Amino acid sequence: MNRRYRKTIIAGNWKMNKTPTEAKTLIEDMKQQLDKDVYKYCELVLCVPFTDIQAAIKAARGSKIAIGAQNMHFEKSGAFTGEISADMLKEMGVKYVIIGHSERRQYFNETDVDCNKKIKVAIAAGLRPILCCGESLEEREQNVTMEVVRKQIKIALRDVPAEDIKKVVIAYEPIWAIGTGKTATAEQAGEVCSAIRDCLRELYGARAARAITVQYGGSMNAKNAEELLAQPDVDGGLIGGASLKAPDFVAIANASRQ
Ligand code: PGA
Known about the structure:
It contains 12 helices and 8 strands. It is an alpha/beta fold. The protein has a single domain, classed as TIM Barrel, CATH 3.20.20.70. 2-phosphoglycolic acid binds next to strand 8.
């Protein structure tokens, strides 16, 4: 982290978990366990299923927890059965939206070009996109991690103007570390996050790149968060499994106090 230049953001990704009633209970537990001064160190976001948004926003009242979504469509409206638009999310009070999570890429065939369209539409609607990138195990073993991540970022951010780039959060999530309990080492996470910042510097210049929050995600938990967040270019986390338990998520938020 480097709080001098950029915000630390600890974001939960609940994936397809929790009903609205369960969401309310979990957020109330988190609120109770969070110290008020934690917000001096980090911003907290919970990216919940669409059906939980209303309950989550209500439950988060009185705290600074922001609510995010996990996906959206890139068209404004129209004949896209089952889809949700950026304006719909915005009107509900959503602040963030995850774009291009590897599970969306893998199971729903999302491409870097889709991510690019979604990011532009999200920003236009006033949402902050959390753009996910990351290599597979095979790609890491083939030694092409940086190439893969750079390609994902360059396509996803194509034509996103410099004045908008500070609204974008990048989440580096090596696919082999997601939900596997196999965390990247702090050095591996730090190395790729800093290469991501290099790439952002090439695209937007040093000042803009310095101000962008780059998170790590992939089996981040209460035990390893402190070490990961100690890396200068790791500015937070995108947390799946551990964001479904109040004490774990709170512990990760507390790990940003260093
Ligand atoms: P995990 O998920 O923390 O359960 O590995 C992270 C993510 O998919 O964002």
